[in-house]
Amino acid sequence: MVSGKLTKERMEQWKFISPGEEGLHEIIAPGKADCQQVYIYRLNLRAGQTYRLRTEEKEMNAACIMGWARVSCPAFEEDCRRLDSFYVTSETEVVIEAGEDAVFYIGGAVDEGYGKSYFRKFDLSLPLGEIHQIHGKGVGRREVFMTVNPETPSSRLLAGLTWGGNGTWTSWPPHQHEKDLEEVYCYFDMDAPHFGLHLSYGEPGDVHGIVAHTVTTGTMVLAPRGYHPTVGSPGTQNAYFWVLAAHSHESCRYDLAALDPEREQLN
Question: 185 has which bridge partners?
Answer without folding.
Answer: 221, 242
